[in-house]
Amino acid sequence: MTPAKDHPIIATIRAEIDDAANRILDAAEACLAGLAAARRGETAALTGIDAELTRIMEACAFQDIVGQRLSQLVAAPGYGAPSVSAGAGLLNGPAPPGEGLNQTGIDALMQPSGQAATRIG
Amino acid sequence: MPVDKAMNVLVVDDYKTMVRIIRGLLEQLGFRNIDDAIDGPSALEQIRAKDYGLILSDWNMSPMTGLELLKHVRADPRTKSTPFVMVTAEAKTENVLVARQAGVNNYIIKPFTLAVLKQKLTTVLGEV
């Protein structure tokens, strides 16, 4: 059985949690700095706070991604019970780092050589 | 032509945190009438009970995947043209092609930013 610390999915999870935590902290610190500046009368500092709070929300997506990676880990040989799901060929969860399509690649596939990304109205 | 942001929007995802994120980002874009569903069957119930101008759905859900939900939505004459955007971590070429074949209007890979969401919704709905 592969030790947990050696499994590549574990390493990926650690990296993603670490990245999300740092992004959240960076944004929170920027908000606090902006608020402190605003309290000193530098109200222009408030304009960036919305963006920083949005970054916090975006970073919280790690919970979903990591949850899916944990499901992959449980289904991996030597871990937990094997998963049984119909149509599993299309249900792979998040790709390992460097694999799978990024948004640019997806956008290219969605270009209308045929149809989508289709405009409605 | 500006989008009517008073439209009803449905967010479908089995992770409540992701629902909160998408809801929050949609609100940042000006959408206000946002419903959510935790799985495909409850989403279908809501879709049959209310007119939605936009559906955003995860793929990897059970007992009904987002792809299956999309197929149900497209099979109903009342909703066959409802804008449907897949928001998912499924990143294989075959996923995108199958979803496109099933009639998805756009496809967003998780994790994503507000800017990406805005861009992809603009492609589907018009300037957001």
Number of helices of chain A: 4
CA radius of gyration of chain B is 13 Å
> Roughly what is the average pLDDT of chain B, rounded to an integer?
97
Structural class of chain A: mainly alpha
Number of strands of chain B: 5
Give the topology, please:
The complex is a heterodimer of chains A (121) and B (128).
Chain A: H1 8-39, H2 49-59, H3 62-75, H4 103-110
Helix pairs in contact in A: 1-2, 1-3
Chain B: E1 8-12, H1 16-28, E2 33-37, H2 40-49, E3 54-57, H3 66-75, E4 84-88, H4 93-102, E5 106-109, H5 114-125
Parallel strand pairs in B: 1-2, 1-3, 3-4, 4-5
Can you describe this structure?
The complex is a heterodimer of chains A (121) and B (128). Chain A has helices at residues 8-39, 49-59, 62-75, 103-110. With 121 residues, chain A is mainly alpha-helical. Chain A starts with 7 loop residues before the first helix and ends in an 11-residue tail after the last helix. The model of chain A is unreliable at 114-121 (pLDDT under 50). Chain B is 43% helix and 18% strand. The model of chain B has no long low-confidence stretch (mean pLDDT 97). In chain B, β4 (84-88), α4 (93-102) and β5 form a beta-alpha-beta unit. The termini of chain B are close together. Chain B has a five-stranded parallel beta sheet, sandwiched between helices. Chain B is of the alpha/beta class and 128 residues long. Classes of the chains: A mainly alpha (121), B alpha/beta (128). The A-B interface holds A 50, 54, 57-65, 67-68, 85, 87, 89-95, 99-103, 105-106, 109-110, 114-121 and B 1, 13, 15, 17-18, 20-21, 24-25, 28, 59-60, 62, 65, 67, 81, 83, 89-98, 100, 103-114, 116, 120, 123-126.
In summary, what is this structure?
The complex is a heterodimer of chains A (121) and B (128). In chain A, 54% of the residues lie in helices and 0% in strands. Chain A contains four helices and no strands.
Key traits:
heterodimer; A: mainly alpha; 4 helices; B: alpha/beta; five-stranded parallel beta sheet; 5 strands; 43% helix; globular
